[in-house]
């Protein structure tokens, strides 16, 4: 495991030439790091960041303690959520960024930017608790999108379409909304159906297997590669 992360580190844009990857006990500082807070590349703040690996996922957080505290989500909860993502999916996540600021228009608490998952700050204690509870679900959902993309968009494959139509329902109300908008304004309903299904499978397997047996079989065989 450690060798694989060292190899990942050697390939990383942040690698300072050191052979061993940085860990929580031995992080490195990147100065400056740009914390984007929204979709626009024009809104960001440059700050020193501390970076290190946790189970192969690069963690990026403000080096300054006060700034770190502007995001109430606890590191241990983030680590626990990372541990709960099945390995094959976890390998798709490059980084988790702990952002001190809120998203620009305040509409998201977490968001994937490429293979980086951004956890926004400025959440009330109540909101941060909710986000913390949802972290494993958020991580698996985003990792499922990354897996989908790196596997030739299997959410568009005939086999997945067939599983959806045999189940004859929607994976979740969120995917239903996206499915209705499928193809409109760049929305990809099938990709959301897939990501929701993978997250539901990992988090609530018995219930999901009962409700969506064909999708469940697809995920078991084609994603998690279990027989
Ligand atoms: Zn999604």
What does this structure look like?
With 227 residues, this protein is an alpha/beta fold. It folds into two domains: 2-124, no CATH class; 154-223, no CATH class. Helix content is 46%, strand content 17%. It contains ten helices and six strands; from the N terminus they run αβββαααβββαααααα. It has helices spanning 2-11, 65-69, 75-83, 87-90, 125-150, 158-167, 173-180, 189-203, 205-211, 213-223; strands at 28-36, 44-54, 57-62, 95-98, 110-113, 116-119. Strands 1-2-3-4-6-5 form a six-stranded mixed β-sheet. The longest helix has 26 residues, at 125-150. The chain starts with a helix and ends with a helix. The protein binds zinc ion. Zinc ion binds next to α5 and α8.
In a few lines, what is going on in this structure?
With 227 residues, this protein is of the alpha/beta class.
Number of strands: 6
Heterogens:
zinc ion
Query: Assembly type of the shown chains?
Result: single chain
Termini separation comes to 25 Å
Helical segment count: 10
Radius of gyration: 18 Å
Largest sheet: 6 strands, mixed
Query: What is the overall pLDDT average?
Result: 91
Find the structural class using helix and strand composition.
alpha/beta
- The spatial strand order of the largest sheet comes to 1-2-3-4-6-5
Domains (count): 2
* Low-confidence parts: none
DSSP strand content: 15-25%
Order of helices and strands: HEEEHHHEEEHHHHHH
Helix content: 40-55%
Overall geometry comes to: globular
């Amino acid at each position: 495991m450690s060798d694989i992360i060292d190899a990942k580190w050697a390939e990383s844009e942040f690698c300072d030439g050191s052979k061993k990857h940085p860990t929580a006990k031995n992080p490195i500082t990147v100065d400056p790091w740009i914390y984007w807070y929204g979709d626009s590349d024009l809104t960001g703040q440059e700050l020193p960041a501390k970076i290190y690996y946790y189970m192969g996922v690069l963690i990026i957080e403000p080096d300054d303690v006060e700034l770190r505290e502007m995001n109430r989500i606890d590191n241990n909860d983030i680590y626990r959520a990372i541990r709960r993502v099945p390995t094959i999916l976890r390998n798709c996540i490059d980084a988790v960024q702990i952002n001190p600021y809120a998203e620009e228009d305040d509409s998201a608490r977490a968001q994937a930017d490429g293979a980086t998952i951004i956890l926004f700050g400025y959440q009330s204690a109540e909101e941060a608790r909710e986000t913390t509870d949802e972290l494993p679900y958020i991580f698996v959902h985003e990792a499922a999108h990354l897996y989908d993309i790196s596997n030739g968009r299997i959410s568009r494959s005939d086999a997945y379409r067939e599983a959806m139509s045999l189940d004859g329902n929607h994976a979740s109300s969120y995917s239903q909304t996206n499915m209705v908008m499928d193809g409109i304004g760049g929305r990809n309903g099938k990709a959301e159906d897939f990501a929701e299904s993978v997250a539901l499978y990992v988090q609530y397997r018995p219930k999901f297997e009962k409700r969506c047996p064909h999708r469940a079989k697809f995920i078991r065989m084609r994603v998690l590669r279990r027989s």
